[in-house]
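Ticket #4471: structure export looks truncated?
Reporter: QA, pipeline team
Priority: medium

Steps to reproduce: submit the single chain below to the structure queue and open the exported record.
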Amino acid sequence: MELCRRSPLWRERLPMRAKKNEAGRVAGTKPRQAPQLRPIGVIRSRLKERSKAPKQGSEGAPDVWLDVRPSAAQGLDGLAVGDEIIVLTWLHRAHREILQVHPRSDPSRPLTGVFATRSPDRPNPIGLHRVTVHKVAKNRLRVGPMEAIDGTPVIDIKPVLCEVQES
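Actual output as written to the record:
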């Protein structure tokens, strides 16, 4: 027998609804929390202005220091000179309201959705940087090349496990 909203049996066949407390939440559940990012470090670079930074690390970007917070320093155990890693950053100077850009800031190219580009301007401006570790010094890594500007928050570091598509 097919049930639809017009059928009197429709409500009888639905699972019971959970009781809600005075706050409007299902009893025994915690309120939903927005995702929170906790930066683990910061980039220290000679690049100070976004307009002066190369579009990609392979386009003449310098090596940088990645300063890791003391609370996250143990997470560096196992990294060594020569390792390739992916550094995830929060592009703090991005414009989050932008959804379309001219690729590579070239007005002769048609507007394209930011999810089809590597533009830093996007709703959640997470930077993805594949770099090589050149030095490990306590809670600091010398890595590069990297196009991130000075003061860019680092949100995670991951090892490269297999070939990742080049820029």
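Status: closed, not a bug. The export was complete when the record was re-opened. Leaving a note from the reviewer for reference: Residues 37-159 form a domain with the Elongation Factor Tu (Ef-tu); domain 3 fold (CATH 2.40.30.70).
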